């Protein structure tokens, strides 16, 4: 591989470029921190208890608007026989979103997705203790309505009878204390296309099937709805819209430069284009389409896009380290085949995550109430795939560390023999070392910042400052910052690792290369010893 | 203000004597006023056709205005008939007419919890339904019990309002969208979401429950002719005590919130996590307040009172609480969640109709126990009667979650002890 721009760029130009990119990075962080709201927000919706007068499982029950049903207090533990029917006729109604400040709110398509989680308030009752784990059967029905529709025009969206397990513990067994029950994930919608949603839930009791018999004294059910915030989506999509043309532009520029060379593109150049392509896929602002079309597959698509990007990035690092191994047989490398062992770790990891995702979010496209985690087989399956992915990640990092360690060993070995080499070889090796060190530094910095940011975010989240208004929205800043960072990283890679136009001394040429180029190269901010080695090189050349 | 003293029909004492006894013994704050907590006993009465202001201090006359707005008319109909509210509270009701039902529910919850918590004690949180002051003298005394009542009802309102917001039955709950961007609700909600309902519940409780005390606190002179500066000062101290205890009740609610989180990042990873808080069962609130009641701080010195004023005004909380009781109570720093009182509890042993103290005679007690319900303590050393009763109760019950239960009936013969 010939020299790249990063080696031939003067120190001043390089620092200007790096400074510009750093500014872009700070801007990304600040956009998230100052403009964007939190990525998502959660609302507690208390279920109203309606009573189905007949057995109208087709009917929609809603609590606001014309023809709404009355909320009835659940009268617990009446002795009348007819009350058995009652349990099967109680419908828990959640009409979302709930109004605020006397305004009937409606969902905006900018809010992208909706997650529903149930929380059961079960009071302790000494005569009716709950087991630590109870299986409950939920008959759930989700409907939607749009603005302008009549109040009762609810259209079915999805319905399902789902089993979920409920883990409830109680610290102090006192009457009327609530159990501390695990939350029950109910549904996940990949698109928020409609204005209003309505969830009707029944907890049918059947003594023959022992359905819902173990449920304690249920006081109320809360539905927690989590949706992305419209403001965050707007900021996010704008960021994507800005990055998208930049990355495409730099890819075209890069590819043109590669094609201007006489030789066919090298493996690393293919990898860089692949990486750029994966990022472009990630950057494509498909969210605009969700404003007009119902695209419930957006969550899955987002996961897949992210997965492809990670695969590309991880493969790139491997190949990059491999290509800088500086072993003699250069021809042997330059083929992806050589890396099949290493890349298979990436492949297996990504594939298992993909399968897991398809099992979870893929099936959710058909049934939003589905979750792989609720059955034991599903949980084991999901865990298998996740553990497999984890193992591949471990294997990958072992490979990568080994290769990087190898490269560093070679570097130190090469450096000791560097002064004794011919000029072309020396320049070649110095270039290789510099390229490698530069990327190592940049990558480590990016990875460290991502990890540190993530940990900081987790810590800040755990403390949950709710009564002091924090000026910087940290979570959003983390997301935009990290997203921007990887964009800038790849932009810089495409830009700096493009082949240089400056002529290199070719092996067949004589050693009488122009002095100006040598001087330009020597200005590189690599090591101070470089100049002395150049001097020794000059002496050596004179001797030759 | 409304009635100087809600005269219960059952009291046989003549009015002058009652007033005299109040003036002699009670702090000269005020007589047993009508109180908003009365809503918790009687609930919200059906709205009147034409709002006729009833005795209990309306903010404005109902008939002076033209009723063009049906909503306003409805609000007036609902709020006009409410017993026990002061002007400022009626105004709050007029602004949020749908909130009055949760308020009544909150008061009911508070009173019920109080009665549950004190069911075994000498004072059993008894209420008088014919009296608009609900607790009568106890509410005016300024003792630990007063502190508990104020805290538990204030907490009840915050709890009930928060719940009503979540249920969607209270449609005017605040949204408070974001700090920097002042957007109106629909846009603000779509942009950055709304705040937690609990904040609104707390705020509302502050606005409504604290209103009488704030009125007392700010304009002591205006309503009652308290010429004596010392009396006025005592009056203000009482207002501060009530405010502090109201806030303590709310503080307890927010300290008991549970936080839950859900991960929903890429492939469901915890890259993105959203958390929310859920309300505790109200009995937990009651239990914690009962614990605080036992450690209630008596403020006796003027210095302590000053500190209380400072604490009740400053928004930050003290945090740590020590169990240290004893003589130098005022020396420990008073935290926001502590209950405070300025007077000692009266003697609850003997019936004192003038103060509405029922006494403990006739109360069921526990012969073997050692706690507050033990016959020794509850009967104040007067001894107890023992009866043999046949007790019929449900047993071996089989429950189904909502509303159904099959039980057998079991009969047991047991001794029942009642105080003399």
UniProtKB/TrEMBL annotation, chain A:
- Which Gene Ontology terms describe the biological processes this protein takes part in? intracellular protein transport; segment polarity determination; Wnt protein secretion; Wnt signaling pathway
An example GO CC term for this entry is: endoplasmic reticulum membrane
The segment(s) forming the Wntless-like transmembrane domain are: 229-501
Q: Which residues form a coiled coil?
A: none
The GO terms describing molecular function are: Wnt-protein binding
Q: Show the Pfam families listed in the entry.
A: WLS-like_TM (PF06664), WLS_GOLD (PF21883)
Q: What is its main location?
A: endoplasmic reticulum
Q: What does this protein do?
A: A segment polarity gene required for wingless (wg)-dependent patterning processes, acting in both wg-sending cells and wg-target cells. In non-neuronal cells wls directs wg secretion. The wls traffic loop encompasses the Golgi, the cell surface, an endocytic compartment and a retrograde route leading back to the Golgi, and involves clathrin-mediated endocytosis and the retromer complex (a conserved protein complex consisting of Vps35 and Vps26). In neuronal cells (the larval motorneuron NMJ), the wg signal moves across the synapse via the release of wls-containing exosome-like vesicles.
- Name the chain's protein: Protein wntless
Q: Which gene encodes it?
A: LOC113209258
TrEMBL record, chain B:
User: GO terms for biological process?
Assistant: canonical Wnt signaling pathway; cell fate commitment; cell morphogenesis; developmental growth involved in morphogenesis; muscle organ development; neuron differentiation
Biased amino acid composition, Basic residues: 303-314
Subcellular locations according to the entry: Secreted, Extracellular space, Extracellular matrix
For this UniProt entry, which residues form the secretion signal?
Answer: 1-31
Q: Name one GO cellular component term.
A: extracellular space
Q: Where is this region: Disordered?
A: 296-331
MF-aspect GO terms? cytokine activity; frizzled binding
For this UniProt record, the keywords arranged alphabetically read as follows: Developmental protein, Disulfide bond, Extracellular matrix, Lipoprotein, Secreted, Signal, Wnt signaling pathway
- Which SMART domains does this chain map to? WNT1
The family database entries (PROSITE patterns) matched by this protein are listed as: WNT1
The domain of life is Eukaryota
Residue spans of biased composition, Low complexity class: 315-325
What CDD domains does this protein map onto? Wnt_Wnt16
* Family according to the record: Belongs to the Wnt family.
Q: What does this protein do?
A: Ligand for members of the frizzled family of seven transmembrane receptors.
The name of this protein is Protein Wnt
- Which organism does this sequence originate in? Frankliniella occidentalis
């Amino acid at each position: 591989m010939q020299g790249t721009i990063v080696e031939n760029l003067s120190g001043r130009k390089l620092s200007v470029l790096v400074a510009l990119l750093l500014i872009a990075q700070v801007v990304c962080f600040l956009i998230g921190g100052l403009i964007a709201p939190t990525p998502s927000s959660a609302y507690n919706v208390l279920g109203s208890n309606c009573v189905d007068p007949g057995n109208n499982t087709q009917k929609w029950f809603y609590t606001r608007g014309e023809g709404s049903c009355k909320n009835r207090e659940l009268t617990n533990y009446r002795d009348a026989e007819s009350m058995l029917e009652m349990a099967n006729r109680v419908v828990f109604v959640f009409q979302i979103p709930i109004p605020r400040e006397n305004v009937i709110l409606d969902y905006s398509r900018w809010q992208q997705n909706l997650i529903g989680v149930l929380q059961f308030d079960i009071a302790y009752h000494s005569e009716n203790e709950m087991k630590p784990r109870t299986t409950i059967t939920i008959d759930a029905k989700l409907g939607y309505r749009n603005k302008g529709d009549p109040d009762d025009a609810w259209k079915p969206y999805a319905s399902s009878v789902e089993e979920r397990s409920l883990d409830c513990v109680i610290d102090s067994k006192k009457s009327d204390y609530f159990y501390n029950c695990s939350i029950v994930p109910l549904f996940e919608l990949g698109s928020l296309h409609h204005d209003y949603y309505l969830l009707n839930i029944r907890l049918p009791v059947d003594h023959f099937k022992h359905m819902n018999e173990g449920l304690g004294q249920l006081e109320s059910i809360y539905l927690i709805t989590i949706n992305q915030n419209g403001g965050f989506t707007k900021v996010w999509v704008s960021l994507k819209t800005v990055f998208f043309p930049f990355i495409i532009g730099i890819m075209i520029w890069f590819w043109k430069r590669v094609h201007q060379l006489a030789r066919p593109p090298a493996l690393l150049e293919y990898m860089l284009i692949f990486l750029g392509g994966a990022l472009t896929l990630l950057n494509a602002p498909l969210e605009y389409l969700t404003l007009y079309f119902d695209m419930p597959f957006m969550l899955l698509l987002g996961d897949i896009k992210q997965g492809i990007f990670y695969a590309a990035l991880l493969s790139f690092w491997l190949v990059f380290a491999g290509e800088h191994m500086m072993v003699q047989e250069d021809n042997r490398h330059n083929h992806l085949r050589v890396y099949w062992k290493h890349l298979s770790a990436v492949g297996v990891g990504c594939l298992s995550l993909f399968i897991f995702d398809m099992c979870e979010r893929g099936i959710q496209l058909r049934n939003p109430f589905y979750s792989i985690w609720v059955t034991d087989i599903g949980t084991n399956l999901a865990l298998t795939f996740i553990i497999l992915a984890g193992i591949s990640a471990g294997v990958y990092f072992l490979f990568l560390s080994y290769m990087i360690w190898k490269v560093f060993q070679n570097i130190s070995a090469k450096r000791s023999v560097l002064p004794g080499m011919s000029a072309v070889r020396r320049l070649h090796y110095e270039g290789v070392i510099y390229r490698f060190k530069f990327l190592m530094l940049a990558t480590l910095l990016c990875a460290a910042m991502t990890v540190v940011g993530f940990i900081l975010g987790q810590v800040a989240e755990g403390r949950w400052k709710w009564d002091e208004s924090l000026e910087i929205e940290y979570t959003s800043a983390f997301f935009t910052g990290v997203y921007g960072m990887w964009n800038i990283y790849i932009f810089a890679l495409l830009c700096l690792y493009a082949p240089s136009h400056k002529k290199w001394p070719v092996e067949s040429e004589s050693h009488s290369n122009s002095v100006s180029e040598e001087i330009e190269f020597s200005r590189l901010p690599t090591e101070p010893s470089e100049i002395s080695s150049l001097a020794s090189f000059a002496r050596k050349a004179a001797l030759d | 203000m409304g009635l100087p003293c809600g005269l219960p029909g059952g009291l046989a004492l003549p009015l002058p004597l009652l007033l005299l006894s109040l003036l002699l013994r009670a702090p000269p704050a005020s007589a047993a006023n009508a109180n908003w907590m009365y809503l918790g006993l009687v609930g919200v009465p059906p709205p009147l056709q034409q709002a006729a202001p009833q005795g209990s201090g309306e903010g404005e006359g109902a008939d002076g205005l033209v009723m063009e707005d049906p909503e306003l008319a409805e609000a007036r109909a609902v709020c006009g008939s409410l017993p026990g509210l002061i002007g400022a509270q009626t105004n709050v009701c007029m602004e949020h007419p749908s909130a009055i039902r949760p308020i009544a529910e909150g008061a009911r919850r508070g009173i019920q919890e109080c009665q549950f918590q004190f069911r075994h004690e000498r004072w059993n949180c008894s209420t008088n339904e014919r009296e608009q002051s609900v607790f009568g003298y106890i509410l005016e005394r300024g003792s630990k019990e007063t502190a508990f009542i104020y805290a538990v009802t204030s907490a009840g309102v915050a709890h009930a309002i928060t719940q009503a917001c979540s249920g969607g039955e209270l449609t005017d709950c605040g949204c408070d969208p974001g700090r920097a961007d002042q957007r109106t609700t629909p846009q603000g909600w779509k942009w950055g979401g709304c705040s937690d309902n609990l904040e609104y519940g707390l705020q509302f409780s502050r606005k409504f429950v604290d209103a009488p005390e704030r009125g007392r606190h700010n304009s002591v002179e205006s309503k009652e002719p308290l010429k004596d500066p010392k009396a006025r000062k005592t009056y203000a101290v009482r207002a501060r005590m009530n405010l502090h205890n109201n806030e303590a009740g709310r503080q307890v609610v927010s300290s008991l919130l549970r936080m839950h989180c859900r991960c929903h990042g890429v492939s469901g990873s915890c890259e993105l996590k959203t958390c929310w808080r859920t309300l505790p069962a109200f009995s937990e609130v009651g239990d914690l307040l009962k614990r605080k009641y036992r450690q209630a701080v008596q403020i006796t010195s003027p210095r302590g009172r000053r500190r209380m004023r400072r604490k009740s005004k400053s928004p930050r909380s003290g945090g740590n609480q020590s169990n240290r009781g004893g003589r130098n109570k005022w020396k420990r720093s008073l935290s926001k969640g502590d209950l405070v009182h300025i007077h000692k509890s009266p003697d609850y042993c003997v019936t004192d109709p003038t103060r509405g103290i029922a006494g403990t005679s006739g109360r069921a007690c526990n012969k073997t126990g050692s706690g507050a319900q033990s016959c020794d303590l509850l009967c104040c050393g007067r001894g107890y009667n023992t009866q043999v009763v046949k007790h019929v109760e449900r047993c071996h019950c089989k429950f189904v979650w909502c509303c159904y239960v099959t039980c057998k009936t079991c009969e047991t013969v047991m001794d029942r002890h009642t105080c003399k």
